[in-house]
């Protein structure tokens, strides 16, 4: 593999951390790959609602697959090979990082958001699945390319170490990664149809209603039952859904717009008009998710004594579920020559 | 979403930062567009922050009345809850709950104190102190 020096590394702004890191890293090493392509090719689109797994007292809701799955999915589907290190000892983890930087590499890393000082205070929540690129060190600071920021950042050595070694759910264990092999030719003609169909099948045919279209309906059902719950909790729950969908870097509408962008790009690579239509459908799905977010926030605004229309919110999610289902069915029907 | 509909609401939770969003141009082609935020997102984020603030304030008061140990306040002030503190220290929840009792907290070994202090990003001295004001502060416009 060609070694591209740090000196020509160019930061760029993306919607999402893990797909942004991989897009930048692949492009840096000579394989131009947009963020949308990274996201779609790794098969990262999902909807998950797991009421019995709680994060900060709220049920787990996710619009993409679990952290690291973009890196792993891309490896598997494109035949890229990544070297991944985790550490039990923070000092050792920092030592290895410095050594890799000295070799001129740019390094992907997983970290907590809460302990990164360059995040605005209002964005600092305990989330351990954040990703960024470290592309150098100057004295006691690392040079950071964080995909969800417009410009390059700097982070004191001590703070980054803390952020890389937080414990708990999705603990990063100091994870560092970089590519060791990138194929010269990628056979998009066969890879794209395969990953698109596989992702659509995952969304349609989950055995339990905690993932896929069935999970969207399950969430709708839960919302319909909120009337009986404590009102303050009900409002926090609605806010939680909106945050997972919009606040966490999703490029809007819980990654549905990124995926629509991917389908469009795939359509132009394969010269397949059907994919363009599916892309438009996915955009409409995203627009519906945004309408749901607006309705949810209007419900949060309701004062004491004002009625919240939970059935309307439920109906909106059922409508989202129908639109998603149709889109995936359409994708499964596409005939790729 | 079309590019001209990408919200530019200059929301306070972004703190003058921008996010990249996917949106279509006049011909329907997708591209990344910078957004200064959507009011809907701001309201959801602020709701979560105000909830954290409420919990920290309540804890602050309980510690002031010496019903709880300072550890209890510092947990909330660092935007954690019992589950998160348990995960980040590796201690069982029931043990931590005991340490919320002022009399038990005062007798904690220095090893345990270091463990808490590390997880909360403070010194063991700071861990014993209760600041005059709750540190999760949200300035209202």
Q: Could you please describe the fold and organization of this structure?
A:
The complex is a heterodimer of chains A (337) and B (141). Chain A has helices spanning 17-28, 35-41, 69-78, 90-102, 157-164, 188-204, 213-224, 231-247, 256-270, 273-301, 310-333; strands spanning 45-55, 58-64, 81-85, 107-111, 130-138, 141-145, 153-156, 176-181. Chain A has 337 residues and is an alpha+beta fold. Chain A has two domains: 6-33 and 81-181, Alpha-Beta Complex (Cathepsin B, Chain A); 188-333, no CATH class. In chain A, the strands form two sheets. In chain A, strands 3-8-4-5-6-7 form a six-stranded antiparallel sheet, with helices on both faces. Chain A has a two-stranded antiparallel ribbon with strand order 1-2. In chain A, a hairpin with a 2-residue loop joins strand 5 (130-138) and strand 6 (141-145). By secondary structure, chain B is mainly α. Chain B has two domains: 3-37, no CATH class; 47-128, 434 Repressor (Amino-terminal Domain) (Orthogonal Bundle). A two-stranded antiparallel ribbon of chain B has the order 1-2. In chain B, helix 1 packs antiparallel against helix 2. Chain B is elongated. The model of chain B has no long low-confidence stretch (mean pLDDT 93). The chains are: A alpha+beta (337), B mainly alpha (141). Chains A and B meet through helix 8, helix 9 and helix 10 of A and strand 1, strand 2, helix 1 and helix 3 of B.
Q: Could you give the order of strands across the largest sheet of chain A?
A: 3-8-4-5-6-7
Structural class of chain A: alpha+beta
- Rg of Cα set of chain B: 21 Å
Basic shape of chain A = globular
Task: Write a concise keyword list for the protein shown above.
heterodimer; A: 337 residues; alpha+beta; Cathepsin B, Chain A; 2 domains; 6-stranded antiparallel sheet; two-stranded antiparallel ribbon; 8 strands; B: 434 Repressor (Amino-terminal Domain); two-stranded antiparallel sheet
């Amino acid at each position: 593999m060609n070694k591209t020096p740090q000196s020509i590394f160019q930061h760029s702004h993306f919607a999402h951390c893990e797909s942004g890191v991989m897009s930048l890293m692949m492009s840096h090493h000579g394989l131009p790959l947009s963020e949308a392509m990274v996201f779609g090719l790794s098969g990262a689109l999902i909807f998950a609602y797991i009421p019995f797994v709680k994060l900060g007292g709220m049920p787990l809701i996710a619009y993409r697959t679990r952290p690291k799955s973009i890196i792993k999915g891309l490896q598997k589907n494109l035949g890229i090979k990544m070297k991944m290190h985790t550490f039990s000892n923070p000092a050792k983890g920092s030592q290895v990082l410095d050594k890799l930087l000295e070799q001129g590499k740019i390094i992907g890393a997983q970290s907590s958001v809460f302990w990164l000082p360059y995040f605005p205070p209002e964005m600092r929540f305990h989330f351990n699945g954040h990703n960024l690129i470290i592309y150098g060190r100057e004295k006691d600071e690392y040079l950071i390319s964080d995909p969800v920021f417009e410009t390059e950042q700097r982070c004191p050595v001590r703070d980054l170490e803390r952020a890389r070694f937080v414990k708990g759910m999705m603990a990063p264990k100091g994870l560092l990664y970089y590519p060791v092999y990138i194929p010269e030719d990628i056979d998009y003609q066969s890879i794209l149809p395969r990953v698109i169909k596989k992702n659509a099948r995952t969304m349609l045919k989950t055995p339990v209603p905690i993932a896929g279209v069935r999970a969207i309906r399950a969430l709708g059902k839960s919302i319909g039952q909120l009337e009986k719950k404590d009102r303050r909790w009900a409002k926090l729950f609605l806010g939680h859904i909106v945050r997972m969908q919009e606040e966490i870097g999703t490029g809007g509408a819980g990654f549905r717009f990124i995926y629509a962008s991917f389908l469009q790009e795939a359509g132009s690579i394969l010269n397949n008009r059907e994919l363009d239509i599916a892309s438009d459908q996915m955009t409409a799905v995203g627009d519906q998710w945004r309408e749901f977010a607006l309705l949810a926030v209007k419900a949060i605004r309701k004062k004491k004594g004002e009625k919240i229309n939970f059935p309307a919110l439920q109906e909106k999610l059922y409508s989202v579920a129908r639109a998603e289902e149709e889109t995936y069915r359409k994708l499964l029907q596409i005939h790729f020559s | 979403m079309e590019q001209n509909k990408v919200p530019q609401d200059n929301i306070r939770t972004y703190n003058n930062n921008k996010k990249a969003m996917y949106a279509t141009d006049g011909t329907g082609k997708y591209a990344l567009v910078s957004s200064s935020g959507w009011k809907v997102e701001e309201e959801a984020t602020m709701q979560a922050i105000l909830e954290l603030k409420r919990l920290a304030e309540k804890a602050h008061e309980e510690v002031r009345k010496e019903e709880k140990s300072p550890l209890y306040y510092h947990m909330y002030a660092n935007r954690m809850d019992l589950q998160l503190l348990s995960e980040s220290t590796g201690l069982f929840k029931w043990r931590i709950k005991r340490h919320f009792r002022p009399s038990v907290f005062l007798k904690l070994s220095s090893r345990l104190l270091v463990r808490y202090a590390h997880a909360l990003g403070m010194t063991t001295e700071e861990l014993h102190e209760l600041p005059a004001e709750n540190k999760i502060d949200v300035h209202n416009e």
